[in-house]
Amino acid sequence: MAIERVGIIGRGAVGVLYGNLLNEKLGKERVGFIADEKRASQYRDNPVFCNGRICDFTYASDGKSYGPVDLLLIAVKYPVLMESLESVRDFVGEDTIILSLLNGVTSEGITEETLGRGVVLHSIAQLMDSVKAGNQVEYTKTGEIVIGTNDEGKEPQLREVEAFFRENGIPHHVAEDIIYEQWSKLMLNCGINQICAVYDIPYRGCQSGQPYREEFRDTMEEVRRIAVLEGIPLKEADIERWLVAIDGLDADSMPSMRQDMLAKRRTEVDLFSKTIMELAKKHGTEAPLNTKLYQKIKELEENFR
């Protein structure tokens, strides 16, 4: 089955970045942002800009009239995942391929269980430096979408997505071990996202020679240790790879959790440090760095009320 129509839920930094790339390549009749009618109306009245150019997006709220999409990209934050899945239910058919671009290692299972149809592949959105402020999205690095599956029965859908991304110029790669890659990204996020959020710093603060570099490294090492206990053999070389990657990002840009903090939005801390804390307890050990970051982020979130 060729992928003809794409649905996207989540008009944040990642959704706009990839939605704009697909819109320019496929045309607005083949790419739709999914939202309830109230939100869709707000989106139409307040268009979003990507790198200074207005995005002429299609917005869809009635899945029964719009029909199932061939590929669904879920680009929302974890706190609104469940309500977002309810919004897309009528846009998902038995053959719809679903990519959950959320951080962490749990959203695919939640998506499969909640929707009960469609084909969910594992995926990661990484290495972009997109930032959303108001209705403006800015980025210098497009990053990539990593895709994969540990289910041989989903190989045909994986190859369909690979071909679709290749044909339409969407940066991507197919992971040999997508679960390993997702854990590696979780390790990064527990470091870079949480530290930038707690200390209110851009990427610069965690780059080579900067004040929070060692805490960034040590937090990733703590996650690596827990991953090994879970049977995911992350290596020190994975930490070094992420250190190099962060050094290559725009020093004045910032990860999503700091963006959430500045906008006073609930963060994805439960996907990051809380996951590590629970797994540490499961294995009879501790995760003091992640525990400290979790507590500080929760304190900061309390001030949003």
TrEMBL record:
InterPro entries: 6-PGluconate_DH-like_C_sf, 6PGD_dom2, ApbA, KPA_reductase, KPR-Related, KPR_N, NAD(P)-bd_dom_sf. Pathway: Cofactor biosynthesis; (R)-pantothenate biosynthesis; (R)-pantoate from 3-methyl-2-oxobutanoate: step 2/2. Pfam families: ApbA, ApbA_C. Keywords: NADP, Oxidoreductase, Pantothenate biosynthesis. The keyword NADP applies. It comes from the Bacteria. Residues 177-301 form the Ketopantoate reductase C-terminal domain. It catalyses: (R)-pantoate + NADP(+) = 2-dehydropantoate + NADPH + H(+). Its EC number is 1.1.1.169. The keyword Nuclease does not apply. One of its GO terms (cellular component) is cytoplasm. Residues 6-151 form the Ketopantoate reductase N-terminal domain. GO terms for molecular function: 2-dehydropantoate 2-reductase activity. GO terms for biological process: pantothenate biosynthetic process. NCBIfam families: apbA_panE. Belongs to the ketopantoate reductase family. Catalyzes the NADPH-dependent reduction of ketopantoate into pantoic acid. This is 2-dehydropantoate 2-reductase.
